[in-house]
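Archive entry: two folds, one per protein. Generate the first.
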Amino acid sequence: MSSARIAPERLIPSPNEGAVRSPRSRSRNSFRQSICVFSLIFSDVLSIAIALRVGIFLRAHLVPRVDFHISPATLPFSHYLDNVWLWLFFLIFLGVEGLYTQRRTLWNEVAHLAKAVTLALTAVFAATSLAQWESDVSRTTIVLTAAILLIVLPTTRYWTKRGLRAAGFWRKRILILGATDTARLAMHGLASDPVLGYEIAGVLDDDPMTKGKYVGTWGNKPVFVLDNLASASEQMNLTGARDILIAMPDLEERKLLPLVHDLQHACESIYVVPQLWGLPMMNLRVDGFLRERLMMLKLSNNLAKPWNNWLKRLFDIVLGTMSGLLVLPLCLVVAVLIKIDSGGPILFVQERLGYKDKVFRCFKFRTMCLNGDEMLIRHLALNPDAADEWHKYAKLRAHDPRLTRIGRFLRLWSLDELPQLWNVLKGDMSLVGPRPYLPQERTRIGMELPTILSSRPGMTGFWQVNGRNQLTLEDRVQLEAWYIRNWTIWFDCIILAKTFKAVLFAWTTQSPARSGPIPTSTRKPQET
């Protein structure tokens, strides 16, 4: 068993070795930090130049085609180079947001990049207006440049950090305290995020039976328990770790506080995983009383606020309308293919649970045979494994005999759900939200039913981009309830981006199966 593996002695350096390497390690760390900062600044300057070039091109060739009253003549690239102070605003706000000094997860960094670009754009307009330099810049070009930066900056920074990481510069060693299940989850998160750049140096735990034991992997390298918690400072010197992650949710406060105070002076950052599993985290705010040294965690239910519901609805209408116009020709082609392939109706209409327990008619392209119920009953009766899978997952993940030829293709690429854009525009659904459940699935949703029904069901959702066919129905419900409690408009943007990626690589990430209740011979065909 992997849990029984013991760390080779050579993986645990001797104290003398660590004492010799420590000064050199600090010097190398400073050099690496400098290389990373200068590389990121160079990457950002290059991104601004690329975005400006594209912005000028669009201002000269695209904008006049949209508005014939605007002249195609615009200020050249060299003019903006002479006014280099304009672009210093972008670099300054990138620095203010800590984008040269702090390590953040991928989507957290994208959010801070968007904030920095927005603030810089505001500062540029304010500066040009106050100094009366409006004639020296094209406002349209500046806006286009900022919009393009929202795409170019995350892309160039992502590949810059990947390159720095491959070269060994964007790597930072971290020690994990606690050989717990939480620690293993943290290790997985650290290893899977492409921009954090953490290298797990080892794990410390007070259980003497765990010393030297294998606890997981970072990349292709095994991670072992090195020693107990009391040796944390020593192990930081030995391994070159500069950050600590305390993944011991059950550790008592009387032990946690002295541990943090003892290590804080020697660490650049300390991460603490609290015993708050499952609480909303994207709407979490830290507050407190300074005099009493009391910390408070504020949890906001964003979807309970009317203005946030209005914002989400406006987001659905604008993006749903644009998407509908773009995919309308594709929908016409799909409709013709369905008719040619199997005849029968083009659309499948089914009642689903909606917002505030309102039942609505959900539209999809038909992907199943007209006698799908009978086919499924026979298939489940002849295949006990398939029956167990259906009961557990409420879907057939590998092979569903009800699907037509064109239906398998539509399911694979999620094209069968395009008619739900009409549900979105009507207000029955949202672009992002929980799955639209069937009325007879109420009992299986259980205690999370009020939470699920507090949001409009979505065309896509958090569970679709986090496990999809590998999750049981109960697991899906938990993920969707967590999404609702953590909702932000930025969270919706992340899910839409992940959905686009999942659909784009659908042939490698999913099977065409879908879910639904076990039908009876008296029901209409169930397409879910």
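Generate the second and append.
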Amino acid sequence: MAQTAYEAPLELMNFALRQAAESTGAIEIDGYAEVLADIAPPVLESAARFAGEVLSPLNSVGDRSPSRCEAHGVVATPGFAAAYNRFWRDGWVSLGLPEELGGQGLPALIAAAATEMWGGANLAFAMCPELAAGVVAVLRGVGSAQLINEYGPLLTSGEWTASMCLTEPQAGSDLSTLRTRAEPEGDAWRLFGRKIYISWGDHDLSENIVHFVLARTPDAPPGLKGISLFLVPKKVRSTDGTLQNNDIQAVSVEHKMGIKASPTCVMALGEHDGARGWLLGRLHEGLGCMFMIMNHMRLGVGLHSLGLAERALQLARSHARERLQGRDAMGAQRTIIEHADVRRMLLMMKSLTHAARCLTYTTAATLDLVERTPDGEARAAASRRVDLLTPVVKAWCSDVGMEVASLGVQVHGGMGYVDDAEISQVFRDARIGAIFEGTNYIQAQDLLGRKVLRDRGQALGELLTEMEQVAGLLPGDSADALAALRSGLLGGCAGMRAAVERLIDAIAPGAGTRATAAGTGVAASTQAAADADLVGATAHHFLQWLGVLAGAWQLALSTLRPNPPRTVIDCSVFYSTHVLPRIHTHEAAVAAGAKPVTAARIDDL
């Protein structure tokens, strides 16, 4: 089967960039409009060439020749080291990073569009540099001046890479059970333990890898409150300035169903004298510091999943235009794109992809408001919006990536199920999005338990009001093709408002901000178990409900823009009748509460 290179959909990407900047108000930030008009187009054109000409050809190579662990360390897929050397030297790592550390300081919105391309062209490669923005933010926020000066510029440029070391064999997502320990030694620490599932934990792409490691000190209290964050480099500088190996190394890499070129490492710390590390932030407050990285990575998962959805669409569309199957009334063979069901699948793929693109870009533009606006009130509102949308972007968009990739396989038919078909790899690669950086169930719990119930629906109410205002601008005439988008969006918002009121009343009736006191979401005391069951049983459907509504909101914004491309109108009409009605299923499941889940005996499952 002939393979084609990834091609960035620049017209639709620039359309979504402008929509995000204007709808969020980021366009009003001093100098933002000029950067978007003058700098973004050539930057994205150059990124598109790099993605298509350098990264895309290596994608299938990585699937066939995964990274491997040898005695001296992990060896990356052939071609990856040379590609990464070009990547960081061309300035792609530093695109949105701070100028004071050598970065280019471009808006997060532009960096987000580039991130979509990296994920679409070669997800396994894209995962390596994605950590840079998060770890640099942690360094700037809680690192000492010495650590910032020594590591900040090298991480910003991408000359050195980073990894995030959280999970341990016994812990999984429950970080309260971490056992890696850190023992003080002068102005530094010695770390001992083992970490698993560490993406790009070791490789030969860069001279040094800076690990951000969660560990416990000897006096640490139990649970999450006893975790501290440490910077532990693969190599440390000796007194003569040369880099020497630290006591941290990969002992194996996982053999995975997808992203095979990305080394998922088991890391051993302190097999000898202990790995030297330095404390970041205050003792026992490491989890909060690590979440600065995690939240950035969750946006990255959404963007990478979007890139995979776009790639799946490209592959399916190309195949559908070439594959002959069946005959017309005159007896001539037809391409399968002429079949109504194939057109349905392609429209589903395209409408979901456009909705996800606009939503992720909107979140990135809102992040620019948080970081750049001088207006304190606007910054606070934007911060609430980013907090609310981040779990939706991570979970809903990664689910979109899986759904679109699965449809791509279906369009290919049997040809999509063989290893030679790139769509097969896209499908397998997309599956990780719902799992890592906090599973989608964790995102759903975070959304409902913390982001909605904890503030009694304030941030969600602000979002729903904005959605309703946008819906009100759509045609109200039932004969109009967009009327279903208007009515569905308005009805979905009204239903969600009512559902949130019921959930608040069920969990914290008349308790004001009782749920905030626990600081972890739903309240404690005698209602804790019942609260957890209610949130746990309904959170998935609540997040999916909001995701579908958010997609409709973004498509409504697209149709209201001056001279939208015809394909945008087609997607909006299709979404309103084939995707937006999903809200009724999710609404019914949320209304049913915990009983349909908890009534089933565990032994009968």
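Annotation attached to the second fold: Residues 439-605 form one domain. The mean pLDDT is 94.
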